[in-house]
């Protein structure tokens, strides 16, 4: 459904690429030519601007309850996208919800990427026993269907924006770790790591100054797909009632009660879902474009 | 159809040209290649990798990618079993399918990867028989067993049920040969069939090919970069460089008195004892590299690597393929001058 | 093959130990731990909680607790539901059928459609079909399953009235057709993402095989293109798909939970959510562990099937 799905988009899951600054320019040119990715960038910029500025331009507050105007359909009056069962303006709520959904997605990505990178680097660099144990541990976590794990944790821990972000991050770093581990394992064999070793550099120096900068391409790709995953995951838990709690809105929890009004007020279900799909698709497109752009094998041909 | 073909030849390729469409435009791989092969004869196609020899052989089989990815011009006249001459270059795909593996077959360089790992070798051989001869499965398997005997595989009945990964490289190449010979083709194209094998196995496979050729009278087009192998099995030789024929002739004159500096270079770079007999035992590499097909040098494509290149001439015009002596062609501006110095 | 399977069984057992440790950690490391629910009960004093903890053996060192929990797990004693005191395993068992039915149907849809789209995309690479398939798959992977479910219900149940909006069957009607009728919408919803995944994998697997030397050999034999594609290419390209079926299990289970919620489908996923609502931790933990073990076993089976189907492993 979500989770690792983004991985399958590409023909070659493992990126065996060393990025040097020299080729950064060429990668950027390739990225610019990737139409889907540019569409994704455009949509994300638009969404971020809209959620940042939009709420100030809309004449309604997202929490203002107008009980006389309940269930106003879209385009029927002052409320462009209609109102919800409490008469709150749907457009205002969508934009405020976007702030939370995008922030949670972005923050969870940053944390996941950091955890995944550190674990991946350590596993890949030390290899053998430490590496095997860490990577088997990653395999074991991946045996748990993500939603079950996230829900169990969310039910045990008092939900708030911060804890939800942490839980999503804690269950989303494994793919990054896998990508980084396989990168580091191949990079470690290269000459420059050996050279640094010979010069008496410390392990930490080699890992963070020599290896990670050379694995940055795949990490960026994994991180982009990680945002997509995190936004979806937030939507799922919030929809199921264990994520962002009302009255704060997120795209997921706006759909929480939408099912019961499906017959009378379908717009309550349509718009938030469209926003999620749009945001996630955009990040997936960007990730796809980045993967193509940073794939140095294309430089050879 | 085009029937004005020399009565003694089975394959007559004329002005064959192949080019591929890439991101950087049309890239020519083979230009203006013409040659003929007679039944029972072995023509060796020699050149470094990138010389166009494999593309030439794939084009004859019409196994180059379909248009628009690749374009193929010229004619490939082939005399069928029924005596009719067809131009393979313009045959419809389904008619070509009826020829491939039937009247004209091919074996490849990599026996380790050229067999389908999930099918039994018996079935893989029988398949060719079933599609071309319209016989039932059992008859086809019987024929497969016969073929395994022919190519010298021990315990043929048992081997029919083996999978490719059970066989060594040499055995797999024998299976490939059996498959190619399944329908008694009149032309066999062998694309570096021994390159990937151990030296002792190479000799066995060459011996087998010679013996099978004697028995069946088929023509063989043998592609190789190894002049030692050429000396051993070829009747005639065609040397290719950068997609063009640069020298063509009988094996003895060509190896004894090569006219093109490139052929000289090739001979000098082969460390084989057989060549001592031709007085070519010194070992040297040709300097430089095969040119990038997208950035071909002006004039003779070999001139940047050639010791005899004459500025103002060799780097201006492409030399024509001219007849130096009877049945010995060379493409070089300076072959006369070089020959007189060497003599 | 025996050696291969033995190796995979040993690997799976090691993984099972790690999985159980993670499950135990989830149970204990969350603030409040297994006793969190009692703290919410009014009138429960600190002393009462300590007494319960002692009764449940929760005052002993963690490794000992883990060992006891793990051995009981292996023996099939997964505790009792707080809600109705039934053994956890039998509670799960009563819901498993509905979930499996949904998952199997969705997987079949995904295999048929996904393989078809993938094969066509690979054969006509860079065609309009291929392009639409690629973009379609990316969008399908981005649509939240529950929202797709809502849209399906809105269109096919609310507006058109063609399909039921939920449940596994109509009350009082237990016929095969009634069950099948109820299965249509939820299995399509669950299949959406899987179709995308299968088509992407199949496409790249086909392209891998199509460039192999033995495909050129097959063409050189003069086989019709249809035979080259189906007998030689697809046969090889399908082998890695067996492993994919195993790898997709966790995704499928997650999807099933959401789909069951939207369609009020009486399966394991809904049971999990209901149990969360009742704070019925033995069942929650039971389902969490059960789903992980299901994934583990599924992957092991997939690898074994792959070994049987691939002569390179089978005959070694």
From TrEMBL, chain A:
Stretches assigned to the ABC transmembrane type-1 domain: 98-287
Xref: Pfam families: BPD_transp_1, OppC_N
GO annotation terms (biological process): peptide transport; protein transport; transmembrane transport
Signal peptide as annotated in the record: none
Superkingdom field: Bacteria
UniProt-annotated location(s): Cell membrane
GO cellular component, one term: plasma membrane
Topology versus the membrane: Multi-pass membrane protein
InterPro entries xrefs: BP-dependent_transpt_permease, MetI-like, MetI-like_sf, OppC_N
The keyword Phosphoprotein appears for this protein: no
Keyword terms, alphabetized: Cell membrane, Membrane, Peptide transport, Protein transport, Transmembrane, Transmembrane helix, Transport
Residues passing through the membrane, by range: 36-58, 100-126, 133-155, 161-180, 211-232, 265-287
Family indicated by similarity: Belongs to the binding-protein-dependent transport system permease family.
Name assigned to this protein: Peptide ABC transporter permease
TrEMBL record, chain B:
Domain ABC transporter: 13-267
Gene Ontology MF term list: ATP binding; ATP hydrolysis activity
ATP-binding found in the keyword field: yes
Coiled-coil ranges per UniProt: none
Membrane topology: Peripheral membrane protein
Localization terms from the record: Cell inner membrane
GO annotation terms (biological process): peptide transport; transmembrane transport
Keyword Coiled coil in record: no
Location (main, coarse): membrane
One Pfam family linked to the record: oligo_HPY
Keywords linked to the UniProt accession: ATP-binding, Cell membrane, Membrane, Nucleotide-binding, Transport
Signal peptide: none
InterPro entries in the record: AAA+_ATPase, ABC_Ni/Peptide_Import, ABC_transporter-like_ATP-bd, ABC_transporter-like_CS, Oligopep_ABC_C, P-loop_NTPase
GO cellular component, one term: plasma membrane
SMART domains, per the entry: AAA
Family listed: Belongs to the ABC transporter superfamily.
NCBIfam families in UniProt: oligo_HPY
Name of the protein in its database record: ABC transporter ATP-binding protein
Lineage, top ranks: Bacteria, Pseudomonadati, Pseudomonadota, Alphaproteobacteria, Rhodospirillales
From TrEMBL, chain C:
Family annotation (InterPro entries): BPD_transp_1_N, MetI-like, MetI-like_sf
GO biological process: transmembrane transport
Keyword entries, A-Z: Cell membrane, Membrane, Transmembrane, Transmembrane helix, Transport
Occurrences of domain ABC transmembrane type-1 (ranges): 96-302
Main localization of the protein described in the UniProt heading: membrane
Subcellular location: Cell membrane
Superkingdom field: Bacteria
Family matches, as Pfam families: BPD_transp_1 (PF00528), BPD_transp_1_N (PF19300)
Hydrolase listed as a keyword: no
GO cellular component: plasma membrane
Membrane-related topology note: Multi-pass membrane protein
Regions crossing the membrane: 12-30, 98-119, 131-156, 176-197, 238-263, 283-309
Family: Belongs to the binding-protein-dependent transport system permease family.
Protein name: ABC transporter permease
Organism for this UniProt entry: Skermanella aerolata
Organism lineage string: Bacteria, Pseudomonadati, Pseudomonadota, Alphaproteobacteria, Rhodospirillales
């Amino acid at each position: 459904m979500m989770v690792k799905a983004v991985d399958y988009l590409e023909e070659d899951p493992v990126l065996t690429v060393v990025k040097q600054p020299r080729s950064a320019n060429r990668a950027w040119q390739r990225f610019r030519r990737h139409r889907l990715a540019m569409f994704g960038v455009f949509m994300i910029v638009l969404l971020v601007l809209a959620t940042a500025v939009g709420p100030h331009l809309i004449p309604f507050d997202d929490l203002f309850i107008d009980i006389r105007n309940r269930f106003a359909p879209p385009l029927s009056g002052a409320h462009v996208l209609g109102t919800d069962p409490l008469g709150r303006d749907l457009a205002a709520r969508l934009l405020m919800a976007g702030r939370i959904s995008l922030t949670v997605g972005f923050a969870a990505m940053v944390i996941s990427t950091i955890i995944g990178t550190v674990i991946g680097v350590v596993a890949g660099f030390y290899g053998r026993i430490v590496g095997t144990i860490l990577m088997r541990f990653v395999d074991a976590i991946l045996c748990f269907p993500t939603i079950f794990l996230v829900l169990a944790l969310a039910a045990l821990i008092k939900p708030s924006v911060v804890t939800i972000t942490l839980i999503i991050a804690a269950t989303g770093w494994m793919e990054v770790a896998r990508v980084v581990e396989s990168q580091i394992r191949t990079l470690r064999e290269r000459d420059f790591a050996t050279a640094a070793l010979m010069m008496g550099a410390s392990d930490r120096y080699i890992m963070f100054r020599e290896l990670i900068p050379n694995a940055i391409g795949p990490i960026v790709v994994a991180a982009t797909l990680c945002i997509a995953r995190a936004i979806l995951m937030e939507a799922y838990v919030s929809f199921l009632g264990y994520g962002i709690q009302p009255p704060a809105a997120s795209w997921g929890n706006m759909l929480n009660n939408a099912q019961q009004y499906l017959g009378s007020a379908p717009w309550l279900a349509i718009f938030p879902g469209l926003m999620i799909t749009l945001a996630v698709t955009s990040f997936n497109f960007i990730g796809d474009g980045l993967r193509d752009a940073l794939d140095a094998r294309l430089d050879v041909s | 159809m085009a029937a004005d073909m020399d009565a003694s030849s089975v394959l007559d390729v004329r002005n064959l040209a192949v080019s591929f469409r890439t991101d950087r435009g049309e890239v020519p791989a083979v230009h203006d290649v013409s040659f003929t092969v007679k039944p029972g004869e072995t023509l060796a196609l020699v050149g470094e990798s990138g010389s166009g020899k494999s593309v030439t052989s794939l084009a004859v089989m019409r196994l180059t990618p379909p248009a628009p990815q690749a374009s193929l011009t010229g004619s490939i006249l082939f005399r069928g079993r029924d005596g009719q001459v067809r131009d393979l270059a313009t045959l419809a795909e389904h008619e070509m399918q009826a020829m491939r593996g039937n009247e004209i077959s091919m074996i490849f360089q990599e026996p380790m990867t050229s067999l389908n790992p999930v099918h039994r070798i018996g079935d893989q051989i029988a398949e060719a028989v079933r599609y071309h001869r319209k016989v039932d499965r059992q008859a086809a398997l019987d024929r497969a067993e016969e073929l395994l005997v022919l190519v010298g595989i021990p315990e043929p009945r048992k081997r029919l049920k083996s999978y490719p990964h059970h066989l060594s490289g040499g055995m797999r190449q024998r299976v490939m040969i059996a498959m190619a010979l399944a329908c008694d083709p009149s032309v066999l194209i062998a694309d570096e069939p021994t390159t990937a094998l151990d030296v002792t196995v190479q000799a066995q496979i060459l011996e087998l090919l010679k013996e099978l050729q004697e028995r069946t009278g088929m023509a063989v087009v043998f592609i190789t970069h190894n002049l030692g192998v050429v000396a051993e099995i070829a009747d005639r030789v065609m040397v290719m460089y950068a997609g063009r024929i640069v020298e063509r002739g009988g094996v003895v004159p060509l190896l004894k008195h090569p006219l093109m500096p490139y052929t000289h270079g090739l001979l000098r770079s082969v460390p084989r004892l057989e060549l001592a007999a031709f007085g070519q035992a010194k070992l040297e590499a040709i300097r430089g590299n095969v040119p990038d097909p997208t950035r071909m040098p002006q004039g003779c494509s070999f001139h940047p690597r050639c010791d005899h290149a004459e500025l103002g001439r060799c780097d201006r015009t492409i030399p024509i393929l001219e007849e130096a002596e009877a049945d010995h062609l060379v493409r070089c501006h300076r072959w006369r001058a070089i020959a007189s110095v060497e003599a | 093959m025996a050696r291969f399977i033995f190796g995979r069984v040993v690997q799976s057992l090691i993984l099972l130990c790690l999985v159980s440790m993670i499950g135990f950690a989830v149970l204990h490391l969350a603030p409040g731990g297994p006793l969190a629910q009692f703290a919410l009960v009014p009138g429960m004093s600190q002393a009462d909680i300590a007494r319960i903890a002692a009764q449940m053996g929760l005052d002993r060192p963690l490794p000992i607790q883990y060992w006891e929990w793990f051995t009981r797990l292996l023996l099939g004693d997964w505790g009792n539901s707080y809600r109705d005191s039934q053994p956890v395993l039998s509670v799960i068992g009563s819901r498993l059928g509905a979930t499996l039915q949904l998952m199997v149907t969705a997987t079949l849809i995904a295999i048929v459609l996904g393989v078809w789209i993938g094969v066509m995309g690979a054969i006509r690479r860079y065609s309009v079909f291929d392009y639409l398939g690629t973009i379609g798959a990316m969008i399908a992977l981005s649509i939240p399953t529950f929202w797709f479910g809502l849209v399906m219900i809105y269109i096919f149940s609310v507006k058109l009235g063609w399909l039921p909006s939920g449940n596994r069957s109509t009350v009082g009607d237990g016929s095969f057709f009634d069950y099948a009728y109820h299965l249509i919408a939820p299995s399509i919803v669950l299949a959406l993402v899987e179709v995308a995944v299968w088509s992407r994998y199949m496409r790249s697997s086909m392209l891998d095989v199509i460039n192999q030397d033995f495909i050129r050999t097959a063409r050189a034999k003069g086989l019709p293109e249809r035979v080259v594609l189906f007998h030689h290419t697809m046969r090889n390209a399908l082998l890695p798909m067996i492993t994919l079926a195993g790898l997709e299990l966790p995704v499928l289970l997650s999807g099933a939970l959401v789909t069951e919620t939207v369609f009020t489908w009486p399966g394991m996923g809904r049971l999990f959510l209901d149990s969360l609502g009742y704070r019925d931790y033995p069942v929650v933990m039971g389902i969490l562990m059960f789903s992980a073990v299901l994934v583990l076993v599924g992957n092991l089976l997939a690898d074994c099937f792959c070994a049987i189907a691939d002569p390179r492993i089978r005959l070694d």
